[in-house]
Amino acid sequence: MSHRLWDQVRVPGAGADGTHRTMLVKSASMYTDLQRERSDIESIIAHPDYLEVNPELIKPKKLINPVKASKSHQELHRELLMNHKRGLSIDSKPELQRVLQHRRRDQFIRQRKEEEEAKRLQSPFEQELLKRHQRLEQLEKKKEIQQEEYEPEFIKVKENLRRTATICTEEKAV
Q1: Are the beta carbons of 110 and 103 closer than 8 angstroms?
Q2: With CB atoms counted within 10 Å of each terminal CB, which end of the chain scores lower, N or C?
Q3: Is 38 inside any structural domain?
Q4: With b meaning 16 or more CB within 10 Å and e meaning fewer, what string describes 35-56?
């Protein structure tokens, strides 16, 4: 294969006095080599039957992507391109996530305000009653925990057996 692009060719009688001149001409050997390589490759590749002109066959068409064909996708893509051209930065969070965070924050603020208003509207007597009620509940929970700790294991097992025995007798009666 010749890789020369230009060849020197003698052209007879090209001068005014009839002398020979040399001219640079593009080499045809490189092009012929490429054509030969291309024909070798084409002989190896199997050509599908549907490329032949046959009116009975249905020619395959490329399927349309419904996402890319949708108007909303096209508008979004156009908007992103415009923002990119302008140099605007794209938010790191999607719009839905930003909206949900905004709603959560607003809801949290509303709950705080409602709690503060409820505390303001309570009289000092009601506040004291609420504190005592909370203390009593805490004491009851502590007593229950202590009772469970001090009960011997065999009493717990005996109570479980009684429960199962009553359940079994109720099922037999039915």
Answers
A1: no
A2: C
A3: yes
A4: eeeeeeeeeeeeeeeeeeeeee
Burial, 29: exposed, middle or buried (Cβ in 10 Å; 0-12, 13-18, 19+)? middle
Indicate the DSSP class of residue 11. E
**CA dist., res. 19 & res. 10, Å (int):** 10
With 0-12 / 13-18 / 19 or more C-beta atoms within 10 angstroms meaning exposed / middle / buried, residue 30 is: middle
More confident residue, 17 or 141: 141
Task: Supply the pLDDT for residue 93.
Answer: 73
SS3 annotation, 27-87: CHHHHHHHHHHHHHHHHHCCCCHHHCCCCCCCCCCCCCCHHHHCHHHHHHHHHHHHHHHHC
Q: Is residue 35 part of a domain?
A: yes
Q: What's the total number of domains in the chain?
A: 1
Residue 33 belongs to domain spanning: 6-44
Residue 164 C-alpha from the chain's centroid? 54
CA distance 174 to 166: 13
Coil, strand or helix at 122: coil
Q: What is the pLDDT of residues 155-165, one digit of tens each?
A: 778 888 888 87
Look at strands 21-26 and 6-11 and give their pairing.
antiparallel
Domain assignment present for 88: no
